[in-house]
Amino acid sequence: SITLMSHGLVNVGAEPSWSSDFFVALEEKLCKRPMLSESLSPQALAMISHSLARQRRPDGHLREDFRVQGGPSDYQPLTKWPFEEYATRRLRDFTPQGLGLILYASVRLQRGGRPFFATVAQQLKRHGLEALAPPGLAMVVSAASEAIASIGFSDPLRLLHDVAPLCGAAADSMAPWQVMWILTAYANACETRAKVLTTSKPPLIFSEDDATRLFLTSLSQRAAEVLADRNRRAAALRLAVRIAEAEGVATDLRQDLEELILGPLVVESETPT
After folding, report:
1. How far apart are CA 239 and CA 256, in angstroms?
2. What are the Cα distances from residue 135, in Å, to 63, 143, 157, 178, 191?
3. Residue 161 to residue 204: CA distance in whole angstroms
4. CA dihedral in degrees (122, 126, 130, 133; nearest 10)?
5. Residue 262 — φ and ψ, nearest 5°?
6. Measured distance CA(198)–CA(149) in Å, rounded
7. Which of 147, 151, 263, 266 has the maximal Cβ count within 10 Å?
8. Span 127-177, pLDDT tens digits
9. What's the pTM value of the predicted model, to 2 decimals?
10. Bridge partners of residue 72, in order along the sequence
11. Closest residue by Cα to residue 163 from 123, 129, 187, 193
């Protein structure tokens, strides 16, 4: 099926030109045949849009031109296929993981804007945040952090606030890539909030200092357990310190983070799929 084909191509390292040709043809087919999109199951819609996002944006989960000033931008959609319109009509039928996939795809492909982001985030909050597994948590927070550049602060920061305790609670089952995605997302978002929103009171990412500490210690402990390379541990430490500094708890926490993360080496396992 087109669902399995699209998902497989972005996970097996297919020849870029062949993969590009496939997705161009798929996009054209979906745009020309609306009934095909209408017939897709929510799972298929989520997987295809997610695969298209990974194919169109293969250079990492966060934009290199992440805009620290935040606010609306003039980014243009990276696909002509209005998958968010089909998703909106069936939003209640998505699983929590499917909602995470579709949110991630909408941000990376720059479709739907703030209305769609807010709608999916609200659906997740009502029916699925607690059910998200670590891969879904990583995708949701990465999408929320990146979305600041295009839709502003309010909705992304509110979602990051809601998901933060779930990330801490799930840390002991996270793979290396999930730990790094989550730390990167929060480091970027916390720094942006601290730099830009200095005169107004925005939605808080962490409700109090103890919440920040719990989040950081949980993720740092997991980083020490699953990141085998000391350079990667050092990178995780830098991210954790950026969060602590942006949230104003770095003074007495940095030494604890160093002791947690820069521990004995272990064998790294698991990669994103």
Report:
1. 14
2. 19, 12, 20, 6, 24
3. 6
4. -50
5. -90, 65
6. 17
7. 147
8. 889 999 999 999 999 999 999 999 999 999 999 999 999 999 999 999 999
9. 0.86
10. 151
11. 129
